[in-house]
Amino acid sequence: MNSGQFTDQMGRSVVVANQPQRIVCLVPSITELLFDLGLGDHVTGVTRFCIHPATARKNAVNIGGTKKLHLDRIASISPDLIIGSKEENTRAEIERLWDQHPVWMSDVETIADGIDMIRNLGSVCRVSERANELANKIEHSFTSLSNDVPTIKIRVAYLIWYNPIMVSGRENFITDVLHCAGWQNAFETGNYSGSNRYPAVTMADLKKAKPNVVMLTSEPFPFSEKHIQEFEKELKCPIILVDGELFSWYGSRILKMPPCLKKFGAQISSAHQ
Question: What is the pTM of this model?
Fold first, then answer.
């Protein structure tokens, strides 16, 4: 392998000959990571969902949504690196971009995958020292968290959508975050409508799953206090609002997870008692 050839998380070979100067990022959490790695000046195209840091969209071209890209705007940038996600971007659009530009794809289902992504992108973007330092801090923080997880597994139902009700299922990043906090996902087993990763469920399914706590996330659906009241009428367990970025953003924000999860765990245990 030469110094400019890399393998992305989908196992594809990607050639990036030099440090990329015009990066288009299709993944909000990775946009934040690039800025935290000191690459903000090289990020020239971002999605409209790339809201962190606050300056991310100030000078970069708005290339649309994660699942509906403006391919013409991307072409006008002449990017020397595009960073995408297997889960967040559509296969058809990514394949069109592959034909014209170097595209490095992430595939993150676990905290370990997220750490691996940080190290790999550090190599691709020639900021390995900074990326490895961040990755090492994350590993240390999660090791410390693992020493404090509760011995009694609290069953959590994590809702991501309202109509229809959709939950975090199995084999996805959110569920791994729940596991790292010492909790059990009430929907990581069983068969429900739609994807096993993010199945659609009914109120009857929620009752049958018997969660100890129901989490209503801030994204992708913005649950609010009125939803808490609605679910409390049906379910005999605590219903709480949670920051969706804390559970689903797998860039540098992973570093913030362990202390927040530890604090959250104390809150959940108190609510469960």
Answer: 0.92
Taking the CA atoms of 178, 184, 188 and 191 in sequence, report the sign of the dihedral they define. negative
Residue ranges of the chain that CATH labels 3.40.50.1980: 5-107, 154-272
The architecture in CATH of the region 154-272 reads: 3-Layer(aba) Sandwich (3.40)
Per-residue pLDDT tens over the stretch 133-183: 999 999 999 998 888 777 667 899 999 999 999 999 998 999 999 999 999
Q: Which two tokens stand for residue 132?
A: 């490895």
Question: Which of 256-259's residues contact partners 24+ apart within 8 Å by CB, and which partners?
Answer: 257/141, 257/142, 257/177, 257/180, 258/141, 258/142, 258/144, 258/145, 258/180, 259/141
pLDDT of residue 273 exceeding 70: no
Read off the pLDDT of residues 16-39 as tens digits, 9 standing for 90 and up: 999 999 999 999 999 999 999 999
Angstrom distance (rounded) from CA 18 to CA 247: 34
Let me know if domain 5-107 sits in CATH 3.40.50.1980: yes
| Percent of the chain with pLDDT strictly greater than 90 | 85
Count of other CB atoms within 10 angstroms of residue 82: 27
